[in-house]
TrEMBL record:
GO biological-process terms attached to the record: phototransduction
Bilayer-crossing regions: 12-31, 43-62, 82-109, 121-141, 168-198, 218-238, 258-281
One MF term in the entry's GO annotations: photoreceptor activity
Name by which UniProt lists this protein: Opsin 7, group member d
Region (Disordered), start-end ranges: 315-340
Organism name: Scleropages formosus
Predominant cellular place of this UniProt entry's protein: membrane
Entry keywords, A to Z: Chromophore, G-protein coupled receptor, Membrane, Photoreceptor protein, Receptor, Retinal protein, Sensory transduction, Transducer, Transmembrane, Transmembrane helix
GO CC field: membrane
Compartments reported by the entry: Membrane
Ranges annotated as biased composition (Basic and acidic residues): 315-332
Taxonomic path: Eukaryota, Metazoa, Chordata, Craniata, Vertebrata
Location of the G-protein coupled receptors family 1 profile domain: 22-278
PANTHER family in the record: OPSIN (PTHR24240)
Length: 390
């Protein structure tokens, strides 16, 4: 990781590329299996959307500024950058908070949790965006301020504004209380209840020697993955929250710029955790990804099978031999072939050992009538002759 000789600001790591690829893959897999998504997985999709939006809006501006060791854009762009960072970051945190509550409802209070439907999930997803929007639009409405980060290559909330503006102090206190302390408390309490319930269920299962149902196993997997995502997200953002509060309640310039820079990079790397956890450890997502990859490979190299070790390719629909039929007069025999030499099944695009190759060129029929013959495209033959040829 390179360091700026001027401000000591580290150049951003390639987490933006990883986030773009990971969240893009996760959304693609979710779209392919959209008909079988569970309500709780709606929040995972929403989390992936907010992470992807953060990556698309922030990293293209932050990366060149980091290499230049200064903010390269104007004040309006700085305000938009800060707004997007706060909006998508708070949406992700609110989304994880709701997800933990839903998991708690399903595991600890199944009579109510079983009634949780896709429509309920959609309403809560919308509520998470509205909640985040309220705090993101505040500085644009003069409740708090947006400005350059102390290390000078990005923009966010002006953490030093409380020293000169009382409304900025109320905004930062409200932000810290309702967008960090309360969500963290809800998440920890929810998963604490889940752990206690699961422990009690295990004891009951051992006493009655009754196996777990498939539904219970599915719920347990979702809970484990949700816990992993929440831990990763909170671990990434907690250092930034601590540094921000340190700056808000201390004299300007007391907090080293490098502390803000490292905390910000660590926080923005949280956009890569969600796709890694779900694509690698959730079986149905992993199977869908493998199936889509195989489907893409079949489309990329369709229809023609290469022979093992010979480099020859042969279509499953083409026998590779000439077809000869008599039609009507015995003096007029018509012989059909694909117009290629004896090794017409060979494909020049096949490397030895490959399983597939590119489709062959346009097929030609050689029609022989008595001693004369000619070549015509197969598509121009009559239906009966095409059937004989194919």
């Amino acid at each position: 990781m390179q360091m700026s000789s001027v401000t000591g600001v580290p150049v951003p790591p390639p987490s933006g590329v990883l986030s773009l690829l990971g969240n893009g893959l996760l959304l693609s897999v979710a779209y392919r299996k959209r008909s079988s998504l569970k309500p709780a997985e709606f929040f995972i999709i929403n989390l992936s959307i907010s992470d992807l939006c953060m990556t698309v809006t922030l990293f293209p501006l932050a990366t060149p500024s980091a290499f230049a060791h200064k903010w390269l854009f104007n004040e309006v762009t700085c305000q938009c950058y800060a707004f997007c960072g706060v909006l998508f970051g708070l949406c992700s945190l609110t989304n994880l908070t709701i997800l933990s509550s839903v998991c708690c409802l399903k595991v600890c209070f199944p009579n109510y949790g079983n009634k949780f439907s896709s429509s309920h999930a959609c309403l809560l997803v919308l509520a998470s965006w509205c909640y985040a929007f309220i705090f993101a639009v505040g500085p644009l409405a003069q409740w708090g301020r947006y400005g350059a980060e102390p290390y000078g290559t990005a923009c966010c909330i002006n953490w030093y504004a409380p020293a000169v503006d009382a409304s900025a102090m109320t905004y930062i206190v409200s932000l810290f209380l309702f967008c960090y302390i309360v969500p963290c408390t809800v998440i920890f309490v929810s998963y604490a209840f889940i752990l206690l319930t699961v422990r009690g269920s295990r004891l009951a299962v051992q006493q009655h020697v009754s196996p777990q149902t498939k539904t219970a196993n599915a719920h347990a997997l979702i809970v484990k993955l949700s816990v992993a995502v929440c831990i990763g997200f909170l671990t990434a953002w907690s250092p930034y929250a601590v540094v921000a509060m340190w700056a808000a309640f201390s004299a300007p310039g007391q907090v080293p710029s490098i502390s803000f820079a490292l905390a910000a990079i660590f926080a923005k790397s949280s956009t890569t955790y969600n796709p890694i956890v779900y694509l690698l450890f959730k079986p149905n997502f992993r199977k869908s990804l493998c199936r889509d990859t195989a489907h893409f490979r079949r489309h990329l190299c369709p229809g023609i099978v290469c022979g093992n070790g010979s480099g020859a390719c042969r279509s499953p629909k083409e026998p590779g031999r000439t077809s000869q039929r008599n039609h009507g007069d015995v003096s007029h025999s018509t012989r059909l072939s694909n117009g290629l030499p004896d090794n017409h099944g060979a494909c020049q695009h096949c490397a030895e050992g490959r399983a597939r190759c590119l489709a062959p060129s346009k097929r030609i029929a050689r029609v022989m009538v008595s001693s004369a013959h000619g070549e015509v495209p197969v598509s121009q033959l009559s239906d009966g002759l095409q059937t004989d040829f194919l």
